[in-house]
Design brief:
There is one protein chain. The chain is an all-beta fold. It is about 0% helix and about 45% strand. The longest helix has 9 residues.
Length: about 425
């Protein structure tokens, strides 16, 4: 096969049968060398196609598109080898392309006659799991300006396979490790874990796993599944696993706490209840990072660890005094930006002390990078404006300034309000 006046890519008795075999087997790309000109065919194939050199058959055109093709429909023939060559007729011009040659109709693009150095260049191919993109790149000294780009893409319509391996049917309690196995012809992009219709979390890489804290749900029967996704958007769901949650005596959640000194001799206590209760360190945070124009009530920089990535836990802050909760605000600091997250917190008072309560989840609320990777860094500020304090540890503001509490945390499975270092690092996104 060629356009006349140059060395053919398939015009030899030993090559034509090989080319027909490639067509029969639906080989996507057929490369041949020993050519001074770059030439690329349309997609050639079809049940009735039997290529014969120097004979054109319309039955052999599977796709006449100029640049984009679907894999498996036929074969693209590329004749290349023009790295610096300048095969010409002696007049300084490239050898003629014969448009009347029967094979010419098979080609989507060819180098044209008229430039002394048009043949200078090279071919390169970018190959991914789902596509092949070919290029002819003009070389130094090529004055004809000839280039070419085409893409063969595989349409992926096959969904991944996925199974939920653990837990198995039965009774569960406390922290449950959900593990799934997934595979795909091209590649799995993520696995999501579900309790009924509620998404619990996801894992972006194998082995696919998620830690489900059953203390966050009521005792009873639940259906668990895993969903696998591939790059083409195909989705498959595992068979459901039925479990019975039975948590006695609070479901195994434990508590841990520490106290730091607040302003005006008050004490601020941090209490953590849940699977991320192992507070490994704490210290006074850097006050210079607190918002300007406000009065610092207290600050803390602490770390805690969790048993599993994806854990959720509850943090309670006893402010050491009472405040009008309608004036309390909670802000999260990300870099230099403060975000009001008051709607995620609840406030309470027993007449002696005011408390701030929130739940943090590794990879979920409070996790800045949204990945359940067991490491979260997230300063938090609790402010009060316009109301004086009463009760033990009294701290009154002036009405012109705000009083605030700074929490700088490193956590595992914590609300972006406080952070922790988990005992097991795992990349899981909520």
């Amino acid at each position: 096969m060629n356009t006349g006046g140059s060395h053919g890519g398939t015009d030899y008795s030993t090559v034509t049968p090989l080319f027909n075999l490639a067509i029969d087997e639906k080989v996507d790309l057929f490369l041949s060398g020993h050519e001074h000109n770059y030439e690329r065919s349309k997609q050639i194939g079809g049940a009735s196609c039997n290529y014969t050199f120097n004979t054109y058959s319309a039955n052999c055109i599977a796709d006449a598109n100029a640049n984009t093709y679907t894999a498996g429909n036929g074969t693209i023939a590329v004749i290349t080898g023009s790295t610096g060559g300048n095969y010409n007729t002696g007049d300084g011009l490239m050898i003629a392309i014969n448009a009347s040659d029967p094979d010419y109709q098979y080609f989507a693009t060819t180098m044209g006659r008229g430039s002394a150095d048009e043949t200078r260049g090279f071919s390169k191919f970018d190959v991914t799991e789902t596509s092949i993109t070919g290029h002819f790149v003009a070389g130094v000294g090529q004055t004809g300006g000839f280039t070419d780009t085409f893409t063969i893409t595989r349409n992926d319509t096959t969904a991944p396979t996925v199974s939920l391996d653990t837990p198995t049917t039965g009774t569960v309690s406390g922290m449950v490790n959900m593990a799934a196995t997934a595979s795909d012809a091209v590649g799995v992009t993520k696995v999501e874990f579900y309790q009924g219709a509620t998404k619990l979390g996801e894992d972006l890489s194998s082995p696919y796993a998620y830690g489900w804290d059953t203390t966050s749900v009521a005792n009873g029967n639940y259906s668990l599944t895993a969903k696998a996704f591939d790059a083409a958007g195909n989705i498959s769901t595992s068979s459901a696993v039925s479990v019975t949650v039975s948590n006695g005596g609070g479901g195994g959640a434990t508590t841990s706490s520490f106290t730091v000194a607040g302003a005006n001799n008050s004490s601020v206590t941090f209490t953590v209840a849940g699977p991320c209760n192992n507070i490994t360190s704490h210290e006074v945070a850097d006050a210079s990072k607190a918002p300007t124009g406000q009065t610092l009530l207290a600050s803390a920089d602490f770390s805690m660890s969790c048993a599993y990535a994806g854990d959720a836990t509850t943090v309670v802050i006893n402010l050491g005094a009472t405040y009008d909760t309608s004036h309390l605000r909670v802000h999260k600091l990300a870099g230099s930006t403060l975000t009001d997250i008051t709607s995620h917190a609840t406030f309470g008072t027993d007449g002696n002390y005011t408390t701030v309560t929130y739940t943090v989840t590794d990879g979920g609320f409070g996790d800045e990078d949204t990945l359940a990777n067991a490491i979260v860094v997230d300063p938090v500020y609790v402010t009060v404006a316009g109301a004086s304090t009463t009760g033990p540890g009294v701290l009154a503001d002036t009405g012109t300034n705000s009083v605030l509490l700074t929490i700088v945390g490193v956590v595992v499975a914590v609300l972006g309000l406080i952070g922790a270092i988990t005992s097991r690092v795992k990349r899981v996104t909520l």
